[in-house]
Design goal:
577 residues, binds ligand C2E, TIM Barrel, 8-stranded mixed β-barrel, 14% strand, alpha/beta, 23 helices, binds calcium ion, Alpha-Beta Plaits
Length: 577
Protein backbone atom coordinates (compact mmCIF):
# COMPACT_ATOMS: atom_id res chain seq x y z
CA UNK A 1 0.00 0.00 0.00
CA UNK A 2 2.72 2.40 1.03
CA UNK A 3 4.69 1.76 -2.13
CA UNK A 4 1.73 2.28 -4.43
CA UNK A 5 0.58 5.40 -2.54
CA UNK A 6 4.09 6.82 -2.69
CA UNK A 7 4.33 6.21 -6.44
CA UNK A 8 0.93 7.91 -6.96
CA UNK A 9 1.88 11.00 -4.94
CA UNK A 10 5.26 11.30 -6.61
CA UNK A 11 3.67 10.99 -10.05
CA UNK A 12 1.07 13.65 -9.20
CA UNK A 13 3.66 16.00 -7.72
CA UNK A 14 5.98 15.56 -10.67
CA UNK A 15 3.23 16.14 -13.24
CA UNK A 16 2.10 19.30 -11.38
CA UNK A 17 5.64 20.54 -11.07
CA UNK A 18 6.53 20.01 -14.71
CA UNK A 19 3.34 21.57 -16.06
CA UNK A 20 3.76 24.61 -13.79
CA UNK A 21 7.40 24.90 -14.75
CA UNK A 22 7.09 24.44 -18.46
CA UNK A 23 4.12 26.69 -19.28
CA UNK A 24 4.58 30.46 -19.59
CA UNK A 25 4.00 32.35 -16.35
CA UNK A 26 0.46 32.78 -15.14
CA UNK A 27 -0.97 34.25 -11.93
CA UNK A 28 -1.44 31.12 -9.87
CA UNK A 29 1.78 29.50 -10.90
CA UNK A 30 3.35 29.94 -7.45
CA UNK A 31 0.34 28.35 -5.78
CA UNK A 32 0.44 25.48 -8.26
CA UNK A 33 4.10 24.92 -7.46
CA UNK A 34 3.30 24.84 -3.73
CA UNK A 35 0.56 22.22 -4.24
CA UNK A 36 2.90 20.09 -6.36
CA UNK A 37 5.67 20.37 -3.78
CA UNK A 38 3.25 19.19 -1.07
CA UNK A 39 2.42 16.15 -3.21
CA UNK A 40 6.10 15.39 -3.84
CA UNK A 41 6.96 15.68 -0.15
CA UNK A 42 4.00 13.45 0.74
CA UNK A 43 5.33 10.87 -1.75
CA UNK A 44 8.77 10.90 -0.16
CA UNK A 45 7.37 10.77 3.39
CA UNK A 46 5.14 7.80 2.54
CA UNK A 47 8.05 5.99 0.91
CA UNK A 48 10.06 6.41 4.10
CA UNK A 49 7.47 5.96 6.82
CA UNK A 50 4.35 4.67 5.04
CA UNK A 51 4.83 1.10 6.31
CA UNK A 52 3.88 2.35 9.78
CA UNK A 53 0.56 3.87 8.66
CA UNK A 54 -2.66 1.96 9.07
CA UNK A 55 -4.94 0.94 6.21
CA UNK A 56 -7.48 3.42 7.56
CA UNK A 57 -4.96 6.29 7.51
CA UNK A 58 -4.32 5.67 3.83
CA UNK A 59 -8.04 5.75 3.18
CA UNK A 60 -8.55 9.00 5.05
CA UNK A 61 -5.61 10.52 3.14
CA UNK A 62 -7.57 10.05 -0.10
CA UNK A 63 -9.86 12.98 0.78
CA UNK A 64 -7.14 15.63 1.33
CA UNK A 65 -5.55 14.30 -1.87
CA UNK A 66 -8.79 14.98 -3.75
CA UNK A 67 -8.70 18.40 -2.06
CA UNK A 68 -5.24 19.11 -3.51
CA UNK A 69 -6.41 18.11 -6.98
CA UNK A 70 -9.50 20.30 -6.55
CA UNK A 71 -7.28 23.27 -5.66
CA UNK A 72 -5.16 22.66 -8.77
CA UNK A 73 -8.24 22.41 -11.01
CA UNK A 74 -9.94 25.40 -9.41
CA UNK A 75 -6.85 27.62 -9.67
CA UNK A 76 -5.98 26.70 -13.22
CA UNK A 77 -9.47 26.87 -14.69
CA UNK A 78 -9.31 27.91 -18.28
CA UNK A 79 -5.85 26.35 -18.66
CA UNK A 80 -4.93 22.90 -19.90
CA UNK A 81 -3.18 22.37 -16.55
CA UNK A 82 -6.59 21.90 -14.92
CA UNK A 83 -7.16 18.98 -17.28
CA UNK A 84 -3.70 17.66 -16.43
CA UNK A 85 -4.64 17.64 -12.74
CA UNK A 86 -7.96 15.90 -13.48
CA UNK A 87 -6.15 13.21 -15.46
CA UNK A 88 -4.54 12.07 -12.22
CA UNK A 89 -7.91 10.94 -10.82
CA UNK A 90 -7.64 7.38 -12.29
CA UNK A 91 -4.64 6.88 -10.01
CA UNK A 92 -6.92 7.53 -7.04
CA UNK A 93 -9.45 5.01 -8.39
CA UNK A 94 -6.78 2.40 -8.89
CA UNK A 95 -5.49 2.80 -5.34
CA UNK A 96 -8.99 2.63 -3.89
CA UNK A 97 -10.09 -0.48 -5.72
CA UNK A 98 -6.83 -2.26 -5.07
CA UNK A 99 -7.20 -2.16 -1.30
CA UNK A 100 -10.69 -1.28 -0.07
CA UNK A 101 -14.08 -2.93 0.18
CA UNK A 102 -17.12 -1.98 -1.88
CA UNK A 103 -18.57 0.39 0.70
CA UNK A 104 -15.39 2.41 1.17
CA UNK A 105 -14.87 2.49 -2.61
CA UNK A 106 -18.42 3.73 -3.15
CA UNK A 107 -17.95 6.69 -0.79
CA UNK A 108 -14.64 7.78 -2.31
CA UNK A 109 -15.84 7.12 -5.90
CA UNK A 110 -18.79 9.41 -5.20
CA UNK A 111 -16.38 12.11 -3.96
CA UNK A 112 -14.38 11.79 -7.22
CA UNK A 113 -17.58 12.07 -9.27
CA UNK A 114 -18.77 15.13 -7.30
CA UNK A 115 -15.37 16.76 -7.83
CA UNK A 116 -15.55 16.19 -11.60
CA UNK A 117 -19.08 17.54 -11.83
CA UNK A 118 -18.22 20.64 -9.73
CA UNK A 119 -15.10 21.28 -11.84
CA UNK A 120 -17.18 20.99 -14.98
CA UNK A 121 -20.40 22.78 -14.04
CA UNK A 122 -19.46 25.24 -11.28
CA UNK A 123 -15.87 26.14 -12.08
CA UNK A 124 -15.93 25.47 -15.80
CA UNK A 125 -12.43 24.09 -15.30
CA UNK A 126 -13.00 21.00 -17.46
CA UNK A 127 -14.70 20.55 -20.81
CA UNK A 128 -17.54 18.03 -20.92
CA UNK A 129 -15.57 15.68 -23.18
CA UNK A 130 -12.81 15.38 -20.56
CA UNK A 131 -15.34 14.80 -17.77
CA UNK A 132 -17.13 12.11 -19.78
CA UNK A 133 -13.86 10.42 -20.71
CA UNK A 134 -12.59 10.50 -17.13
CA UNK A 135 -15.80 8.99 -15.74
CA UNK A 136 -15.48 6.10 -18.22
CA UNK A 137 -11.73 5.65 -17.66
CA UNK A 138 -12.24 5.69 -13.89
CA UNK A 139 -14.96 3.07 -14.18
CA UNK A 140 -12.71 0.80 -16.28
CA UNK A 141 -9.68 1.29 -14.00
CA UNK A 142 -11.84 0.53 -10.95
CA UNK A 143 -13.34 -2.65 -12.39
CA UNK A 144 -10.09 -4.01 -13.81
CA UNK A 145 -8.15 -3.30 -10.62
CA UNK A 146 -10.93 -4.81 -8.51
CA UNK A 147 -11.05 -7.92 -10.71
CA UNK A 148 -7.28 -8.40 -10.70
CA UNK A 149 -7.11 -8.05 -6.94
CA UNK A 150 -10.00 -10.45 -6.47
CA UNK A 151 -8.37 -13.02 -8.77
CA UNK A 152 -5.06 -12.66 -6.96
CA UNK A 153 -6.83 -13.12 -3.62
CA UNK A 154 -8.56 -16.25 -4.94
CA UNK A 155 -5.18 -17.68 -5.90
CA UNK A 156 -4.29 -17.33 -2.24
CA UNK A 157 -7.49 -18.87 -0.94
CA UNK A 158 -8.32 -22.53 -0.59
CA UNK A 159 -11.67 -22.93 -2.32
CA UNK A 160 -12.78 -25.88 -0.20
CA UNK A 161 -12.34 -24.29 3.22
CA UNK A 162 -12.17 -20.58 2.39
CA UNK A 163 -8.92 -20.38 4.39
CA UNK A 164 -5.69 -18.95 2.97
CA UNK A 165 -3.81 -21.63 1.07
CA UNK A 166 -0.05 -22.19 1.18
CA UNK A 167 0.53 -19.19 -1.04
CA UNK A 168 -1.68 -17.04 1.14
CA UNK A 169 0.10 -18.24 4.25
CA UNK A 170 3.48 -17.45 2.71
CA UNK A 171 2.35 -13.92 2.01
CA UNK A 172 1.02 -13.48 5.55
CA UNK A 173 4.30 -14.85 6.90
CA UNK A 174 6.41 -12.65 4.70
CA UNK A 175 4.59 -9.53 5.78
CA UNK A 176 4.59 -10.61 9.45
CA UNK A 177 8.36 -10.98 9.26
CA UNK A 178 8.93 -7.87 7.14
CA UNK A 179 7.72 -5.47 9.83
CA UNK A 180 9.49 -5.66 13.14
CA UNK A 181 9.35 -9.42 13.46
CA UNK A 182 7.63 -10.66 16.56
CA UNK A 183 10.04 -12.74 18.60
CA UNK A 184 7.15 -14.76 19.88
CA UNK A 185 5.79 -15.79 16.52
CA UNK A 186 5.20 -19.56 16.32
CA UNK A 187 4.20 -21.53 13.26
CA UNK A 188 2.22 -24.68 14.02
CA UNK A 189 1.56 -27.32 11.37
CA UNK A 190 -1.18 -29.87 12.08
CA UNK A 191 -1.90 -32.99 10.12
CA UNK A 192 -5.58 -33.87 9.93
CA UNK A 193 -4.71 -36.96 7.84
CA UNK A 194 -5.33 -39.46 10.65
CA UNK A 195 -8.87 -38.06 11.09
CA UNK A 196 -9.58 -38.59 7.45
CA UNK A 197 -9.23 -42.35 7.21
CA UNK A 198 -12.82 -43.27 8.13
CA UNK A 199 -14.14 -40.42 5.97
CA UNK A 200 -11.97 -41.52 3.05
CA UNK A 201 -13.92 -44.78 2.91
CA UNK A 202 -17.11 -42.80 2.27
CA UNK A 203 -15.64 -41.04 -0.73
CA UNK A 204 -14.34 -37.64 -1.66
CA UNK A 205 -17.51 -35.75 -0.75
CA UNK A 206 -17.40 -37.07 2.82
CA UNK A 207 -13.72 -36.25 3.04
CA UNK A 208 -14.27 -32.72 1.76
CA UNK A 209 -17.11 -32.31 4.24
CA UNK A 210 -14.84 -33.40 7.07
CA UNK A 211 -12.13 -30.91 6.08
CA UNK A 212 -14.68 -28.11 5.73
CA UNK A 213 -16.22 -28.81 9.13
CA UNK A 214 -12.80 -29.05 10.70
CA UNK A 215 -11.68 -25.76 9.12
CA UNK A 216 -14.82 -24.00 10.35
CA UNK A 217 -14.42 -25.40 13.87
CA UNK A 218 -10.76 -24.52 14.00
CA UNK A 219 -11.34 -21.02 12.62
CA UNK A 220 -13.81 -20.35 15.40
CA UNK A 221 -11.46 -21.79 18.02
CA UNK A 222 -8.18 -20.28 16.80
CA UNK A 223 -9.14 -16.85 18.06
CA UNK A 224 -8.31 -13.42 16.73
CA UNK A 225 -4.69 -12.57 16.15
CA UNK A 226 -3.90 -16.08 14.89
CA UNK A 227 -3.96 -16.99 11.22
CA UNK A 228 -5.30 -20.37 10.17
CA UNK A 229 -4.45 -21.68 6.71
CA UNK A 230 -4.85 -24.88 4.73
CA UNK A 231 -1.25 -25.71 4.09
CA UNK A 232 -1.52 -28.97 2.16
CA UNK A 233 -3.97 -31.72 1.40
CA UNK A 234 -4.70 -32.51 5.05
CA UNK A 235 -2.17 -30.19 6.66
CA UNK A 236 -3.27 -26.99 8.36
CA UNK A 237 -1.05 -24.16 9.55
CA UNK A 238 -1.66 -21.85 12.49
CA UNK A 239 0.41 -18.75 13.00
CA UNK A 240 0.31 -17.88 16.69
CA UNK A 241 1.68 -14.83 18.46
CA UNK A 242 2.67 -15.23 22.08
CA UNK A 243 5.39 -17.85 21.98
CA UNK A 244 5.38 -21.59 22.57
CA UNK A 245 2.97 -21.46 25.58
CA UNK A 246 0.33 -19.70 23.48
CA UNK A 247 0.93 -22.12 20.62
CA UNK A 248 0.57 -25.12 22.93
CA UNK A 249 -2.66 -23.74 24.38
CA UNK A 250 -4.05 -23.10 20.88
CA UNK A 251 -3.03 -26.59 19.82
CA UNK A 252 -4.86 -28.14 22.76
CA UNK A 253 -8.05 -26.25 21.90
CA UNK A 254 -7.83 -27.28 18.24
CA UNK A 255 -7.24 -30.91 19.16
CA UNK A 256 -10.29 -30.84 21.42
CA UNK A 257 -12.37 -29.66 18.44
CA UNK A 258 -10.88 -32.32 16.15
CA UNK A 259 -11.68 -35.13 18.55
CA UNK A 260 -9.01 -37.48 17.20
CA UNK A 261 -5.30 -37.96 16.74
CA UNK A 262 -3.69 -34.90 15.17
CA UNK A 263 0.13 -34.88 15.00
CA UNK A 264 1.64 -31.40 15.11
CA UNK A 265 4.99 -29.73 14.57
CA UNK A 266 5.85 -26.27 15.82
CA UNK A 267 8.68 -23.86 15.07
CA UNK A 268 9.33 -20.58 16.84
CA UNK A 269 10.62 -17.66 14.84
CA UNK A 270 14.35 -17.22 15.46
CA UNK A 271 16.28 -14.08 14.55
CA UNK A 272 17.56 -14.43 11.01
CA UNK A 273 14.74 -16.76 9.91
CA UNK A 274 12.96 -15.84 6.72
CA UNK A 275 9.52 -17.30 6.04
CA UNK A 276 10.97 -20.27 4.14
CA UNK A 277 13.28 -21.25 7.01
CA UNK A 278 10.47 -21.01 9.52
CA UNK A 279 8.21 -23.17 7.35
CA UNK A 280 11.02 -25.70 6.79
CA UNK A 281 11.60 -26.04 10.50
CA UNK A 282 7.89 -26.50 11.22
CA UNK A 283 7.72 -29.07 8.42
CA UNK A 284 10.56 -31.14 9.75
CA UNK A 285 8.98 -31.01 13.22
CA UNK A 286 5.69 -32.22 11.70
CA UNK A 287 7.44 -35.05 9.84
CA UNK A 288 8.92 -36.18 13.13
CA UNK A 289 5.54 -35.95 14.85
CA UNK A 290 3.97 -38.03 12.08
CA UNK A 291 6.61 -40.67 12.52
CA UNK A 292 6.00 -40.70 16.28
CA UNK A 293 2.31 -41.32 15.52
CA UNK A 294 -0.85 -40.43 17.45
CA UNK A 295 -1.25 -36.88 18.70
CA UNK A 296 2.47 -36.23 19.07
CA UNK A 297 3.72 -32.64 19.18
CA UNK A 298 7.30 -31.97 18.14
CA UNK A 299 8.82 -28.55 18.84
CA UNK A 300 11.61 -27.69 16.48
CA UNK A 301 14.57 -26.70 18.56
CA UNK A 302 17.14 -24.15 17.56
CA UNK A 303 19.89 -26.20 16.00
CA UNK A 304 21.46 -23.39 14.01
CA UNK A 305 24.73 -23.76 15.93
CA UNK A 306 25.04 -27.43 14.99
CA UNK A 307 24.18 -26.66 11.39
CA UNK A 308 26.79 -23.89 11.25
CA UNK A 309 29.43 -26.35 12.53
CA UNK A 310 28.55 -28.83 9.77
CA UNK A 311 28.56 -26.09 7.12
CA UNK A 312 32.04 -25.03 8.20
CA UNK A 313 33.25 -28.65 8.06
CA UNK A 314 31.87 -29.02 4.53
CA UNK A 315 33.55 -25.78 3.45
CA UNK A 316 36.81 -26.97 4.99
CA UNK A 317 36.69 -30.13 2.87
CA UNK A 318 36.31 -32.47 5.84
CA UNK A 319 33.65 -34.59 4.14
CA UNK A 320 34.41 -37.15 1.46
CA UNK A 321 32.57 -39.93 -0.30
CA UNK A 322 33.65 -43.58 -0.13
CA UNK A 323 32.37 -46.20 -2.58
CA UNK A 324 31.49 -49.75 -1.58
CA UNK A 325 31.14 -52.27 -4.40
CA UNK A 326 27.86 -54.06 -5.11
CA UNK A 327 28.25 -57.36 -6.96
CA UNK A 328 25.98 -59.69 -8.89
CA UNK A 329 25.11 -62.74 -6.80
CA UNK A 330 25.37 -65.02 -9.81
CA UNK A 331 28.98 -64.39 -10.82
CA UNK A 332 30.48 -61.84 -8.43
CA UNK A 333 30.86 -59.24 -11.18
CA UNK A 334 30.83 -55.67 -9.90
CA UNK A 335 27.56 -54.02 -10.91
CA UNK A 336 28.00 -50.70 -9.16
CA UNK A 337 28.67 -49.11 -5.81
CA UNK A 338 27.02 -47.40 -2.89
CA UNK A 339 28.24 -43.90 -2.06
CA UNK A 340 28.84 -43.59 1.70
CA UNK A 341 29.75 -40.28 3.24
CA UNK A 342 32.84 -39.99 5.45
CA UNK A 343 33.65 -37.22 7.92
CA UNK A 344 37.21 -36.71 8.96
CA UNK A 345 36.91 -33.88 11.46
CA UNK A 346 40.09 -31.85 12.01
CA UNK A 347 39.16 -31.40 15.64
CA UNK A 348 37.75 -34.82 16.50
CA UNK A 349 39.19 -37.21 13.93
CA UNK A 350 37.08 -39.62 11.86
CA UNK A 351 33.44 -39.71 12.97
CA UNK A 352 31.25 -42.61 11.77
CA UNK A 353 28.08 -41.69 9.83
CA UNK A 354 25.87 -43.45 12.35
CA UNK A 355 27.06 -40.86 14.87
CA UNK A 356 26.71 -37.65 12.90
CA UNK A 357 23.87 -38.40 10.45
CA UNK A 358 21.19 -38.17 13.19
CA UNK A 359 22.52 -34.72 14.19
CA UNK A 360 22.65 -33.64 10.56
CA UNK A 361 19.05 -34.75 10.18
CA UNK A 362 17.96 -32.95 13.32
CA UNK A 363 19.40 -29.60 12.25
CA UNK A 364 18.47 -29.88 8.59
CA UNK A 365 22.06 -29.99 7.34
CA UNK A 366 21.37 -33.45 5.93
CA UNK A 367 19.77 -31.75 2.92
CA UNK A 368 22.94 -29.89 2.06
CA UNK A 369 25.12 -32.91 2.79
CA UNK A 370 23.06 -35.42 0.83
CA UNK A 371 22.89 -33.11 -2.17
CA UNK A 372 26.64 -32.68 -2.04
CA UNK A 373 27.10 -36.47 -1.85
CA UNK A 374 24.65 -36.90 -4.72
CA UNK A 375 26.48 -34.45 -6.97
CA UNK A 376 29.88 -35.89 -6.08
CA UNK A 377 28.73 -39.48 -6.63
CA UNK A 378 27.04 -38.69 -9.96
CA UNK A 379 30.19 -36.99 -11.22
CA UNK A 380 32.33 -39.93 -10.12
CA UNK A 381 30.07 -42.57 -11.63
CA UNK A 382 29.86 -40.65 -14.90
CA UNK A 383 33.63 -41.16 -15.26
CA UNK A 384 33.51 -44.96 -14.84
CA UNK A 385 34.13 -47.16 -17.91
CA UNK A 386 31.30 -46.65 -20.37
CA UNK A 387 31.22 -50.10 -21.95
CA UNK A 388 30.14 -51.91 -18.77
CA UNK A 389 26.72 -51.29 -17.23
CA UNK A 390 27.11 -49.93 -13.72
CA UNK A 391 24.98 -48.09 -11.24
CA UNK A 392 25.64 -45.69 -8.41
CA UNK A 393 23.57 -45.90 -5.27
CA UNK A 394 23.11 -42.80 -3.13
CA UNK A 395 21.45 -42.53 0.28
CA UNK A 396 18.58 -40.11 0.70
CA UNK A 397 17.22 -39.04 4.02
CA UNK A 398 13.43 -39.36 4.00
CA UNK A 399 13.30 -35.82 5.35
CA UNK A 400 14.50 -34.41 2.05
CA UNK A 401 11.77 -35.90 -0.02
CA UNK A 402 9.17 -33.51 1.37
CA UNK A 403 11.24 -30.65 0.02
CA UNK A 404 9.68 -29.13 -3.06
CA UNK A 405 13.04 -28.59 -4.77
CA UNK A 406 14.46 -32.08 -4.20
CA UNK A 407 13.30 -33.36 -7.58
CA UNK A 408 14.90 -30.42 -9.38
CA UNK A 409 18.15 -30.96 -7.49
CA UNK A 410 18.35 -34.58 -8.62
CA UNK A 411 17.61 -33.59 -12.21
CA UNK A 412 20.31 -30.89 -11.97
CA UNK A 413 22.86 -33.38 -10.54
CA UNK A 414 22.22 -35.72 -13.48
CA UNK A 415 22.44 -32.92 -16.03
CA UNK A 416 25.59 -31.48 -14.46
CA UNK A 417 27.40 -34.82 -14.43
CA UNK A 418 25.98 -36.24 -17.65
CA UNK A 419 25.03 -39.45 -15.80
CA UNK A 420 22.11 -41.37 -17.32
CA UNK A 421 19.11 -41.51 -14.97
CA UNK A 422 18.99 -45.31 -15.37
CA UNK A 423 22.40 -45.53 -13.65
CA UNK A 424 21.25 -43.81 -10.48
CA UNK A 425 19.64 -45.60 -7.54
CA UNK A 426 18.31 -43.59 -4.62
CA UNK A 427 18.25 -45.44 -1.33
CA UNK A 428 15.64 -44.42 1.19
CA UNK A 429 15.54 -45.89 4.67
CA UNK A 430 12.11 -47.13 5.47
CA UNK A 431 12.11 -45.64 8.95
CA UNK A 432 12.96 -42.10 7.84
CA UNK A 433 10.47 -42.10 5.02
CA UNK A 434 7.10 -40.69 5.88
CA UNK A 435 5.00 -43.13 3.89
CA UNK A 436 1.92 -41.04 4.63
CA UNK A 437 3.46 -37.98 3.07
CA UNK A 438 1.76 -37.52 -0.26
CA UNK A 439 4.49 -35.08 -1.33
CA UNK A 440 7.32 -37.53 -0.59
CA UNK A 441 5.68 -40.40 -2.44
CA UNK A 442 4.90 -38.12 -5.36
CA UNK A 443 8.56 -37.06 -5.62
CA UNK A 444 9.64 -40.71 -5.64
CA UNK A 445 7.12 -41.47 -8.37
CA UNK A 446 8.28 -38.55 -10.50
CA UNK A 447 11.92 -39.57 -10.06
CA UNK A 448 11.09 -43.09 -11.18
CA UNK A 449 9.47 -41.85 -14.35
CA UNK A 450 12.87 -40.39 -15.25
CA UNK A 451 14.36 -43.89 -15.06
CA UNK A 452 15.93 -43.51 -11.61
CA UNK A 453 15.48 -46.57 -9.40
CA UNK A 454 14.42 -46.45 -5.78
CA UNK A 455 15.79 -48.86 -3.17
CA UNK A 456 14.32 -49.38 0.27
CA UNK A 457 17.29 -49.50 2.64
CA UNK A 458 17.55 -51.62 5.78
CA UNK A 459 14.43 -53.46 4.70
CA UNK A 460 12.75 -55.38 7.47
CA UNK A 461 13.97 -53.20 10.34
CA UNK A 462 11.48 -50.35 9.98
CA UNK A 463 7.88 -50.51 11.01
CA UNK A 464 6.82 -51.52 7.56
CA UNK A 465 3.51 -53.09 7.00
CA UNK A 466 2.58 -54.73 3.75
CA UNK A 467 0.20 -51.91 2.95
CA UNK A 468 3.02 -49.38 3.30
CA UNK A 469 5.29 -51.39 1.06
CA UNK A 470 2.57 -51.57 -1.52
CA UNK A 471 2.33 -47.79 -1.56
CA UNK A 472 6.08 -47.16 -1.76
CA UNK A 473 7.29 -46.64 -5.28
CA UNK A 474 10.29 -49.00 -5.12
CA UNK A 475 12.44 -51.15 -7.40
CA UNK A 476 14.91 -52.72 -4.99
CA UNK A 477 14.78 -54.04 -1.43
CA UNK A 478 18.02 -54.00 0.52
CA UNK A 479 18.00 -56.81 3.04
CA UNK A 480 19.35 -55.38 6.27
CA UNK A 481 22.68 -56.68 7.43
CA UNK A 482 21.26 -57.87 10.76
CA UNK A 483 19.43 -60.66 8.90
CA UNK A 484 22.61 -61.55 7.03
CA UNK A 485 24.68 -61.49 10.23
CA UNK A 486 22.24 -64.01 11.72
CA UNK A 487 23.48 -66.53 9.16
CA UNK A 488 26.22 -68.03 11.29
CA UNK A 489 28.40 -70.97 10.24
CA UNK A 490 26.34 -74.11 9.72
CA UNK A 491 23.09 -72.09 9.68
CA UNK A 492 21.33 -73.22 6.53
CA UNK A 493 17.86 -71.79 7.02
CA UNK A 494 17.09 -68.10 6.96
CA UNK A 495 13.31 -67.76 7.17
CA UNK A 496 13.33 -63.95 7.18
CA UNK A 497 15.59 -63.78 4.14
CA UNK A 498 13.33 -66.34 2.47
CA UNK A 499 10.27 -64.21 3.30
CA UNK A 500 11.86 -61.02 1.99
CA UNK A 501 13.10 -62.53 -1.26
CA UNK A 502 9.72 -64.22 -1.76
CA UNK A 503 7.94 -60.93 -1.18
CA UNK A 504 10.30 -59.12 -3.53
CA UNK A 505 9.69 -61.71 -6.26
CA UNK A 506 5.94 -61.36 -5.88
CA UNK A 507 6.15 -57.57 -6.10
CA UNK A 508 8.65 -57.68 -8.98
CA UNK A 509 11.46 -56.08 -6.95
CA UNK A 510 15.16 -56.91 -6.97
CA UNK A 511 17.01 -57.71 -3.74
CA UNK A 512 20.44 -56.66 -2.52
CA UNK A 513 21.80 -58.32 0.62
CA UNK A 514 23.93 -56.01 2.78
CA UNK A 515 26.73 -56.91 5.15
CA UNK A 516 27.83 -60.11 3.42
CA UNK A 517 31.01 -60.98 5.28
CA UNK A 518 31.70 -64.61 4.50
CA UNK A 519 31.29 -67.20 1.82
CA UNK A 520 28.73 -69.21 3.75
CA UNK A 521 26.40 -66.21 3.98
CA UNK A 522 26.82 -65.60 0.26
CA UNK A 523 25.98 -69.21 -0.55
CA UNK A 524 22.82 -69.24 1.56
CA UNK A 525 21.67 -65.87 0.20
CA UNK A 526 22.27 -66.99 -3.35
CA UNK A 527 20.22 -70.09 -2.72
CA UNK A 528 17.32 -67.92 -1.58
CA UNK A 529 17.50 -66.00 -4.84
CA UNK A 530 19.13 -62.74 -3.76
CA UNK A 531 20.11 -60.75 -6.83
CA UNK A 532 23.07 -58.79 -5.53
CA UNK A 533 25.49 -58.65 -2.62
CA UNK A 534 27.28 -55.90 -0.77
CA UNK A 535 29.66 -56.46 2.10
CA UNK A 536 33.20 -56.82 3.32
CA UNK A 537 33.55 -60.15 1.49
CA UNK A 538 33.61 -58.11 -1.72
CA UNK A 539 35.21 -54.95 -0.43
CA UNK A 540 34.88 -52.17 2.10
CA UNK A 541 33.94 -48.63 1.17
CA UNK A 542 36.95 -46.92 -0.39
CA UNK A 543 38.37 -44.92 -3.26
CA UNK A 544 36.24 -44.58 -6.40
CA UNK A 545 39.18 -45.66 -8.55
CA UNK A 546 38.83 -49.19 -7.18
CA UNK A 547 35.32 -49.40 -8.56
CA UNK A 548 36.41 -47.92 -11.88
CA UNK A 549 39.23 -50.49 -12.09
CA UNK A 550 36.87 -53.37 -11.28
CA UNK A 551 34.48 -52.19 -13.97
CA UNK A 552 37.21 -51.96 -16.59
CA UNK A 553 36.82 -54.74 -19.20
CA UNK A 554 38.63 -57.91 -18.12
CA UNK A 555 39.05 -56.81 -14.52
CA UNK A 556 36.61 -59.29 -13.03
CA UNK A 557 39.09 -60.73 -10.50
CA UNK A 558 40.20 -57.53 -8.84
CA UNK A 559 37.51 -57.15 -6.22
CA UNK A 560 36.59 -60.77 -6.07
CA UNK A 561 35.76 -62.60 -2.92
CA UNK A 562 36.14 -66.38 -2.94
CA UNK A 563 32.77 -66.79 -4.62
CA UNK A 564 33.97 -64.94 -7.70
CA UNK A 565 36.41 -67.60 -8.56
CA UNK A 566 33.88 -70.39 -8.41
CA UNK A 567 30.39 -68.97 -8.62
CA UNK A 568 28.93 -72.27 -9.83
CA UNK A 569 30.40 -74.26 -6.97
CA UNK A 570 28.32 -72.33 -4.41
CA UNK A 571 24.96 -73.71 -5.36
CA UNK A 572 22.47 -72.82 -8.00
CA UNK A 573 21.68 -69.17 -8.41
CA UNK A 574 18.13 -68.09 -8.74
CA UNK A 575 19.05 -64.46 -9.08
CA UNK A 576 17.01 -62.64 -11.68
CA UNK A 577 18.60 -60.05 -13.82
P1 LIG B 1 23.69 -48.09 5.16
O1 LIG B 1 23.10 -47.26 4.07
O2 LIG B 1 22.94 -49.29 5.56
O3 LIG B 1 25.14 -48.38 4.68
C1 LIG B 1 25.74 -49.59 4.84
C2 LIG B 1 26.59 -49.56 6.04
O4 LIG B 1 27.05 -50.85 6.32
C3 LIG B 1 27.85 -48.72 5.84
O5 LIG B 1 28.18 -48.16 7.09
C4 LIG B 1 28.85 -49.75 5.45
O6 LIG B 1 30.19 -49.35 5.68
C5 LIG B 1 28.47 -50.88 6.35
N1 LIG B 1 28.89 -52.16 5.83
C6 LIG B 1 29.08 -52.50 4.55
N2 LIG B 1 29.44 -53.77 4.42
C7 LIG B 1 29.48 -54.28 5.68
C8 LIG B 1 29.81 -55.60 6.21
O7 LIG B 1 30.11 -56.54 5.50
N3 LIG B 1 29.71 -55.72 7.54
C9 LIG B 1 29.38 -54.70 8.37
N4 LIG B 1 29.31 -54.93 9.68
N5 LIG B 1 29.07 -53.47 7.89
C10 LIG B 1 29.13 -53.26 6.57
P2 LIG B 1 28.56 -46.66 7.22
O8 LIG B 1 29.31 -46.23 6.04
O9 LIG B 1 29.11 -46.51 8.58
O10 LIG B 1 27.15 -45.95 7.12
C11 LIG B 1 26.22 -46.10 8.13
C12 LIG B 1 24.90 -45.51 7.73
O11 LIG B 1 25.02 -44.10 7.60
C13 LIG B 1 24.44 -45.96 6.37
O12 LIG B 1 23.89 -47.20 6.47
C14 LIG B 1 23.47 -44.89 6.02
O13 LIG B 1 22.24 -45.13 6.66
C15 LIG B 1 24.11 -43.68 6.62
N6 LIG B 1 24.79 -42.96 5.56
C16 LIG B 1 26.02 -43.14 5.05
N7 LIG B 1 26.26 -42.23 4.07
C17 LIG B 1 25.15 -41.46 3.95
C18 LIG B 1 24.77 -40.35 3.13
O14 LIG B 1 25.51 -39.88 2.25
N8 LIG B 1 23.54 -39.81 3.34
C19 LIG B 1 22.68 -40.32 4.29
N9 LIG B 1 21.48 -39.75 4.42
N10 LIG B 1 23.00 -41.36 5.05
C20 LIG B 1 24.22 -41.93 4.90
CA1 LIG C 1 22.30 -47.28 2.24
CA1 LIG D 1 21.44 -50.42 4.78
Amino acid sequence: MARLASVCYLTGGLVGFLTAWLVPAWDERAAALVVSTVALLAGVAIALFGARLSVRAFYLAIFPTLGLLAVQMGMQRGHAEAVAAALLLPLVSMFLHAFYDHRSCLIADTAVLVLLVVAWVAWRALPVAIVGTLVCVNAVVASVTGWLVHTAAEAETDLLTGLPNRRGLNRVLRSALAGDADHRLVLVLLDAGPLRSPAARDGTAAEDGLLRTLAAGWSAEAGSGTVLARYGDTTFAVLVRGGVPAATATLERLRAVAGGAVPAGTARWEPGDDHATLVNRAESALSEARRAGGSATVHHEDTSGIAAGFEAALDAGEFSVAYQPIVAAADGRVTGAEALVRWSSRARGPIPPDEFIPDAERCGFIRTLDRWVLRTACRTAASWPAGVPSKITVNVSGRELDQPDYYDDVVAALAESGLAAERLVLEVTESTLDADSVAALEVLRRLRTLGIRIAIDDFGTGYSSLSRLHRLPADILKIDRSFVAALGAGEEDAPIVAAITGLARTLGLRTVAEGVEDQHQADVLRRYGCDEFQGWLYGRAGEPERIAAALAPGAGERLSGPSLRSPASSGPSRGRS
